[in-house]
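Risk mitigation, structural track. In case the binding assays with adenosine-5'-diphosphate fail to produce interpretable data, a predicted complex structure has been prepared as a fallback.
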Amino acid sequence: MTDILQIQGVSKWFGSLQVLKNVNLNVAAGQKIVVIGPSGSGKSTLIRCVNKLEAFQQGEIYVGGQALSGVRRMEAVRRDVGMVFQQFNLFPHLSILKNVTLGPIKLRGLPAPEAEQRALELLARVGIEEQAGKYPAQLSGGQQQRVAIARALAMDPKVMLFDEPTSALDPEMVGEVLDVMRDLARGGMTMIVVTHEMGFAREVADRVVFMDKGELLEDAPPAEFFAAPRLERTRTFLQRVA
Ligand code: ADP
Ligand code: MG
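Fallback model:
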């Protein structure tokens, strides 16, 4: 079977600065990839390319066999690829329920009652169904991030991307968000997670990839990756974060 996500020879520049250098990454359906690397190494840019939030100048990305740089509309990409950001990015003027139903109603054409039913199920799954009528500012950071996960799941994505989903949270809220992500992983979701949570990487990842200066330098199962990183740069990085 073809991999659900194929990143082939992707290079990207911001002006004269090359931030992705011939990146290759194939992900089979159901696999969990954890991406690590120093700040500025291109982790966010890479996953933003997968969601078409950023354009790239060379290479190609296929989601479910379809090329992103082709004719596909932005909405189609958003439907297939869910994204969870460090800063939650909920719509502040919409209730929690509306945050979750907006995409399915507008982009998938779901009738409102059906979208609401499904949103409540997803909010229950992430443990906050009783908050459905509130607004984002009334929730804790951990709760907001769980809403953001429910919102992404409401589109029935093929792949879920997480960009440092726990980095903006108070320490006591990190666990509740990682628990939801573990649950999602157990459910078979294909996930690409940029994180500094090495415990999560060891436990959940099928593969850990290391990026530095726009290059994807290592790609190995966590046991191998953490026990015997191939490169000095990886070892140096791990010593700093572990
Ligand atoms: P990471 O997520 O690993 O910290 P990023 O993908 O955010 O790295 O950034 C990679 C590089 O691209 C950095 O040098 C950063 O300064 C640069 N960069 C990111 N976004 C932009 C932008 N919109 N315009 C110009 N440079 C950018
Ligand atoms: Mg980043």
